[in-house]
Amino acid sequence: MTENYADYTTPGMDFEDSHRVTETLQLRLHALNDLQLTLKHAHWNVVGPNFIAVHEMLDPQVDEVRGWADLVAERIATMGASPNGTPGSIVTGRTWEDYPLGRASTQAHISALNDVYTGMIQDFRNAIAETGKVDPMTEDILVEITRGLELFQWFLRSFITTSDGALKPVTD
Ligand SMILES: [Fe+2]
Q: 82 C-alpha to center of ligand 1: Å?
């Protein structure tokens, strides 16, 4: 592998701060790459009523998440670090479990994906808190992505919310 850090970061930024920010961004890149694969996996494996609604809802999410991965990876490169996007590095670098479902009902996939989004959003909010003080440009990128993740989670939650507002996940 090439040396992770170039001789530069963005002007005016402390190197130590920059390295800490790019490490945080690298884990977010793994999360986004993991999510885009997981969403496609669910797109292929949903069965049952509402199939086409869920199947077709997921593809635009995949496209958006891929765009966010690109945004994060290019911020890492802009800051003089080397973004890692290999499949092996996602598996060794991630701190969460693999997606649990294969072929399963639309409601079960929606419920499992809701959990995935909850973890993503919590981790993104933590990343915003970690990076915001030293790099507002990174914070801006993470805020934009988190806003989008929250919107997509609302789409999912709408499938498992009752008319009185209760969230009713399904496990099978
Ligand atoms: Fe497809």
A: 31
